[in-house]
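Lines hold sequence, tokenised fold; shown next:
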Amino acid sequence: MRGDREINLAKMSEVDIAYHILKQRGQPVYFRDLIEEILRIKSVGTDNWSKAAAAIYTRLNLDTRFSYQGQGKWSLRSVGPGKMPRRIRLIRKTGSTILGSGRRLRLSRCGEGLELGEPPEVLDDEASSVDQ
């Protein structure tokens, strides 16, 4: 039965094979181990290993089913710790005009972090009222 399974896997794309490997293991796997298993299933020779590994790495990065866990490990998004997109929640306090009158906020780089600022057009309006 294992031979039949390998034949079926050999007909799949490298990324689909990676998906099945990670799903079967249920935990993050080192990239090198994942690549070696994929290339063994696909019967890729060692002379083409680096080119094939680079192509698989690119496809893993582009496929939303996979998540890089750090320290050279990859997992399925559904298996690994959730890396949800970060959202900044703004809370409007009573009397605050920070989000009033349809103004937008912008984030600008400040050293190693981000600084909350107002769009240039708002700053220009305030600057012109000070000059008068």
Observations:
- Residues 10 and 42 are 5 Å apart (CA to CA).
- Confidence is low (pLDDT under 50) at residues 118-132.
- Residues 2-76 form a domain with the Arc Repressor Mutant, subunit A fold (CATH 1.10.10.1250).
- The chain has two domains: 2-76, 85-132.
